From TrEMBL:
Membership in a protein family: Belongs to the LysR transcriptional regulatory family.
Name of this chain's protein: LysR family transcriptional regulator
Record organism: Massilia eurypsychrophila
GO cellular-component term (any): cytosol
Keywords: DNA-binding, Transcription, Transcription regulation
Molecular function GO labels: DNA binding; DNA-binding transcription factor activity
Highest taxon, organism lineage: Bacteria
Cited Pfam families: HTH_1, LysR_substrate
């Protein structure tokens, strides 16, 4: 049974129940007595029973009215708490934002983003999934994060991708490595004569390098497949190979003894953007986070 009862109806009922007077209750509600009587009559129709016994001399609660009176205060409190909670979400006084990000972006972009967001909206809970590209897309698809900051992947056509910036690949080599002693840019094809240390096949980094090598008619077969940037940096320092990485990923590696050279022929550019579910609106907090991210990228 559907009952259409508003908070105003409940307040009017409580005013009559507390005063046992339609005239006094009408004054409290800033209504005419006839308007209040109409409102109570509509409420009784909604519940299908009389709530008050009325005579010319007195007003009394019926058994049904006493039951409603015993629950009405709690009902109003629940409504008010619900309204407050919804308004808090809209006003960014309550909520949660969950992000996924590639490790290099989690290290370079997210800390500053979270700090600035937390200063502006201290009551919003933040969480981060530091993960590779394909798992990041899956987290968005499953609704476990609001959005992901990652490289473009046309495989996930059911998700929306919003480009933010581009990341150009560079070559990392040890100072003692032949390519580390070269000044200026290095052609990708010239690096392929040496062992490469690359990320695993399902990562965006590997896929971009493989595609660039194919432009030169050469297959890309790294000597080592590593998922952690610190390990890649350490292995490059020990001259176990060279690494073609996006600039943002290279920036995360702080090992001594490394040199960085621009990669050309071709120049490899990786699109970085935000992935979110299609036709699903972001929460107000997530919208604010995305707007802040765009401002930070632009600056």
């Amino acid at each position: 049974m559907e009952i259409n009862v508003s908070a105003r109806d409940i307040r009017a009922f409580l005013a009559v129940a507390d005063t046992l007077s339609f005239s006094q209750a009408a004054q409290q509600m800033h209504l005419s007595q006839s308007a209040l009587s109409t409102l109570i009559a509509r409420l009784e129709d909604a519940f299908g029973t009389r709530l008050f016994d009325r005579t010319t001399r007195a007003v009394a609660l019926t058994a049904a009215g006493e039951v409603l009176a015993s629950h009405a205060d709690q009902l109003l409190s629940d409504i008010e708490r619900t309204v407050t909670a919804v308004r808090d979400v809209s006003a960014l006084r309550r909520g949660r934002v969950a992000l996924a990000a590639l490790p290099s972006l989690a290290a370079r972009i997210v800390p500053r983003l979270f700090r600035a967001f937390g200063e502006q909206y201290p009551d919003i809970t933040l969480s981060l999934a530091d993960t590779l590209s394909e798992p990041a897309f899956e987290l968005v698809r499953e609704g476990r994060v609001d959005f992901a900051i990652t490289a473009a992947n046309p495989t996930y056509r059911d998700l929306d991708y919003i480009p933010l910036t581009t990341d150009t690949f560079v070559l990392l080599a040890s100072r003692g490595h032949p390519l580390g002693q070269v000044s200026g840019a290095v052609r990708l094809v010239d690096t392929l004569a040496f062992p490469h240390i690359s990320m695993s096949r399902h990562t965006s980094v590997r896929q971009y390098v493989e595609a660039a090598a194919l432009q030169n008619g050469i297959g890309f077969h790294p000597a080592f497949e590593i998922d952690h940037l610190a390990t890649i940096g350490a292995m490059v320092v020990e001259q176990l190979g060279v690494a073609a990485l996006p600039t943002m990923a290279a920036d995360v590696i702080s090992a001594d003894g490394l040199v960085r050279r621009p990669l050309v022929d071709p120049v490899i550019r990786r699109s970085i953007g935000v992935v979110k579910r299609r036709e699903r609106s972001l929460s107000p907090a997530a919208e604010a986070m995305l707007a802040l991210l765009k401002r930070q990228i632009d600056t």
